[in-house]
Amino acid sequence: MIRWCLLGVVLLLGGCAAVRSYDRELYLTLDRATTGSVDNAIQLLEANNRASDKDLLYYLELGMLQRLGSRYQESQKAWLSANARIEAEADSLAQLSGFARGVSSYVINDRVRTYAGYDYEKTMLLTYMALNHVAMGDFDNARVAIKQAHELEAQIAEQRAKQYAEVEESARKRGARTSFKELNGYPIETIDTPEVNALRNGYQSALSHYLAGFIYEALGEPSLAAPGYRLANELQPGQPLLEEALRGLDARVAAPDDGMTDVLVVIETGTAPALQSRSFLLPVFVEGRMLLVSNAFPVMTQTSWAPPPSQVTFDEQTLPVARISSIDLMARRRLMDDMPSIMLRATIRSAVTATLQYQAQRAADREHTLAMALGAVVITAGSAAFAHADERTWRALPSDVSIARARLPRGTRNMTLQTAEGARTAQVSLSGRYAVVDLRLLRHQLFVNAPREAR
Prior knowledge:
The chain is α+β, with helices and mostly antiparallel strands. The chain has a single domain, classed as Serine Threonine Protein Phosphatase 5, Tetratricopeptide repeat. Helices cover 50% and strands 20% of the residues. It contains 15 helices and 11 strands. The chain has helices at residues 2-14, 22-33, 38-47, 56-68, 72-94, 103-107, 119-135, 139-174, 194-198, 206-218, 222-235, 240-243, 249-254, 327-367, 370-385; strands spanning 260-269, 274-286, 289-301, 311-314, 317-320, 322-326, 400-409, 411-419, 422-430, 434-442, 445-449. The chain has a 5-stranded mixed sheet. The chain has a 4-stranded antiparallel sheet with strand order 5-4-8-9, with no helix packed on it. A two-stranded antiparallel sheet has the order 2-3. A hairpin with a 2-residue loop joins strand 2 (274-286) and strand 3. Helix 4 (56-68) runs antiparallel to helix 5 (72-94) and helix 10 (206-218) packs antiparallel against helix 11. The longest helix has 41 residues, at 327-367. The model is unreliable at 1-18, 97-107 and 376-382 (pLDDT under 50).
């Protein structure tokens, strides 16, 4: 009975977090944004997050929705709150052992773990904060944000190397399975693809490093701009548009102002892929008997996606477009890299569940009491009810990011973007020597984040 009471307490602690469908909530929220109604999308986000202590994802999603509405100051405020939570969680996790970091997830499911953000979400957060600063004409603070993003990459690389070693050692000691390819029926093709495997890792983006190069160049620091452009080329090789940034860099910075603006066009399409919970059977041995226990695992599913535009036109000048980063692929690589630890937790959880069910059933058979029988039923039904994988992920991020770049005359320009659903047009005002025009396509809706002031 002690074990049953303990399990009941843990289940109650899991509460709403264990049964909430984040995928369903965000699908409806983003659907409102695709109609151009950012206010309605924010209202739905607020309605789904009524608790006074908001979680990380609330601030991530809110910041992106506010950015779609060109509310950069509000967006930065939300994202500063998100970044503070990421840093606080990192500090608290550093003080705990690997097991204590997520003890409830070993008993219930991964949804009850405090959401700390995935690595690519953390680096993209700082990248978008830099883009917000650029949109407000503040290249100096954009420099600070993009530098933080690249410092974070180095920290992540060190942390992940330790984590993967810990998981491998723990799995070896427990005799646990860590390869998702052994999970019968799991759709391996959703994460194990040539494009996913071609990524160096799941958290570095060519966009972030190219943007770093552009910001440093705009600030007159070619020696710092060059490494950014160079790493962008390494992360996304074979793109002539990226390679051109290194050519003539020193000459561009030293050249006198000729009345033209060096324009970087960032084109974001779709939304980040969703995670959905699906059940698979894991074999578990209890007192020499093999039991098949149902356990839920996250499966990556594509959501809003469209082919990137082939070109963008400013008045009569047509610019080629090149894909620079795919958050869709980064998310899939993250899941593939994390599957060993997800498998380890699932194996331990399944063993605990199977043992409790087995012992409860034996006690019920032995004592023939209604209380024992009910206890066995509760444990079996409770474990099934909470068998859900974690579906939380930053959904308002784009699926893919492309860029175009050219020197254009200053002043108001008519811009046309050729998309799969037809041409989308807008007016942008260009001033200064450097400017970033950020475009976001959500289905048929085009959001324009043009600079208020250019450098």
